[in-house]
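Below is how a single chain appears once it has passed through the pipeline. First comes the sequence as given, then the structure the pipeline wrote out for it. We keep one example in the README because the format questions we get most often are answered faster by looking than by reading.
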Amino acid sequence: MDALSLYGAATGTIGTVAGVTALILSILAYRRDVGSLKVTLLRNMRLVVPGLPIAELIRIQKELEGSFGRAVPPLPPDLAALDPNKRWAYIDVVNAGRRDIHFEKGVLLYEDGSTYFALESKPQSLAESRSVNVRVDEELIDKAEKDHNTTLLCAYAIDSLDRNYYSDVPKDKRGLLKRLRKKLDAPTKR
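Resulting structure:
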């Protein structure tokens, strides 16, 4: 075998490997370049501020006001009014893509197919890796479960293009979610 054919075989092999690697990397980059949301549902949460329950935070704030003789920055009004023992469900929505995506609303989906739109969710644009937390009163979820004789299945988020992004569900409920998604993801006429 002469040097020229050996050189041709080596450069051809290197070119093939580099080409396949570039193709794989470009497919991965394309898939990540599309905007998408990752949704997580957290249940039975209590609100804490930097590791402190709200009641403790309010107590510390009052002590500081007394010791400094002047007002310290107040707690946000909605935070100060919250009961520290109240349970919340959080719909955590994170932009998992590279492009900005416009989050419209968070929704709770029940096993019977009924939905509850989280009233606290406000439309907003999410840059890469940015998140939004939507807080839902756990008592409302319990009341809806009792009234409709059903249980909460998952949460989902809707973007500005009316695409739905679902949170994880237990393995035994995935078939139910798949059937419900066919109904929910059907295009709607505007």
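The mean pLDDT is 81.

See the next section for the split statistics.
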